[in-house]
Amino acid sequence: MFKTISDPADCEVRSVIRFLNAKKVNPSEIHRQLVEIYGENVMTDGMVRKWVRQFNDGRTNVHDKARSGRPSVVNGGLVAKVNEKIRENRRFTIGMIFDEFPQISKIVLHEMVTNRLNYLKLCSRWGPKMLTDVHKTK
């Protein structure tokens, strides 16, 4: 039995597909070998066939093509402004912050407050996540 590899990078799997395709291995056999090493959730047989077709058509790059995604509105300056508003009033709600910064969705604001600024909801106040065990029991 072979050792299984968990969570492979997409380009790694595509490199294996490219290699086996160059050795004239058929797509079904490529898929079987990928599943054997990387597990059931690695790639569907249809996706393997798609990549084999692309490599046969002359594609050599195994990495994703650059795509233009939606630019993020969150930057360091905006995070600092949100943090300043929070420090002015610790009894804020996400809705109150949203009123101050309508260009940011409430979901993004909540993620910014909890993940980027590391605030934690404490009853009706927000406080830093860096609480000691004594603070947590109070």
TrEMBL record:
Domain annotation Mos1 transposase HTH: ranges: 13-58
List, alphabetically, the Pfam families matched: HTH_48
Which superkingdom is the protein from? Eukaryota
| This protein's name | Mos1 transposase HTH domain-containing protein
According to its UniProt entry, this protein's organism is: Araneus ventricosus (Orbweaver spider)
